[in-house]
Amino acid sequence: MAQIAIELDWARDPKGYRLVETGRPKELRIVRNGTGHGPKNLPPFQPLSIDLLFKNFANIATTAQGALEFVRRWGSLTPEGWDEEAGDVVSEVTFHAEYMRGVLGVWAGKQKHLHMPVGRGQVGPHRLIVSPYDTGYSSLLQAKVVWDPFAKALKWELRPASLLDALWLQLGQAVTANVQFRQCERCGQFFVAGPGTGRRLDAKFCSDEHRIAFNSLKRSKEK
After folding, report:
1. Domain residues for 213?
2. Same domain assignment for residues 81 and 135
3. Going edge to edge, which strands form the sheet with 88-89?
4. How far apart are CA 213 and CA 215, in angstroms?
5. What is the pLDDT of residue 223?
6. Cβ–Cβ contacts within 10 Å for residue 32, how many?
7. Which of 11, 176, 191, 214 could form a disulfide with 42 if both were Cys (CB 3.0 to 4.6 A apart)?
8. Could you report the per-residue pLDDT of 23-79, keeping only the tens digit for each?
9. Are residues 202 and 104 located together in one domain of the fold?
10. Which of 146, 161, 179 is the last residue in one of the domains?
């Protein structure tokens, strides 16, 4: 069965983003440098044009600086991120990045069980389901049937409420479509392996450079 299209009309503040301690209670947040609530009058941006963007998020957004780097590249993660007095809460962002890493770790065979990372994990009206049998992030979205003028056929379309929702939907589609993830033994980042990816299905490294560096270090320690 073909995957359902995920569509997200998003924007990115051309004035950039910064880390500040703000809000009540005060927390470290990623705040846009521009003014005004919402993405109106900003150039449209399609972050989901990046294939498997959730993998980038899980790989880099586990620290405050990594979360800031992700937002600078692909925009605020939640609608609250458009409010220059609110912004995306860093602890929430890093929580979700770590949680995704846990999901990918289980899928890649690096761990047997999914452990809830330290943090709150609650963003706006979203919820995390934490029972032993139903563990995951509940995304907000609109689902509808639309006409595809290119295929000349009807198709399902999912429109998530935020970039964070879109990332979780992407991850869900990938793991249920049996996309094969591996974790690099050199840098710890997750990558896709198998036919068409440039990495063998049993690959242990995300690149040849990391394989050579890992084996070189191993040999030096054995001397």
Report:
1. 189-223
2. yes
3. 17-22, 27-32, 88-89
4. 6
5. 62
6. 25
7. 11
8. 677 889 999 998 876 777 778 889 998 889 999 999 999 999 999 999 999 999 998
9. no
10. 179
Query: Six-digit token pair at 162?
Result: 């935020």
Q: Which residues contact 68 (CB under 8 A, 6 or more apart)?
A: 17, 18, 19, 30
* pTM for this predicted structure: 0.81
Token reading at 129: 């389901």
Specify if 184 maps to a domain.
Answer: no
Task: Give the span between the Cα atoms of 42 and 223, in whole angstroms.
Answer: 58
Are residues 148 and 218 part of one domain?
A: no
Q: What is the pLDDT of residue 91?
A: 93
CA nearest neighbour of 187 among 202, 204, 167, 174: 204
How many distinct structural domains can be found in the chain? 2
Q: How far apart are CA 13 and CA 138, in angstroms?
A: 27
What is the number of residues in the chain? Answer: 223
In terms of domains, do 134 and 64 share one? Answer: yes
Q: Is residue 81 part of a domain?
A: yes
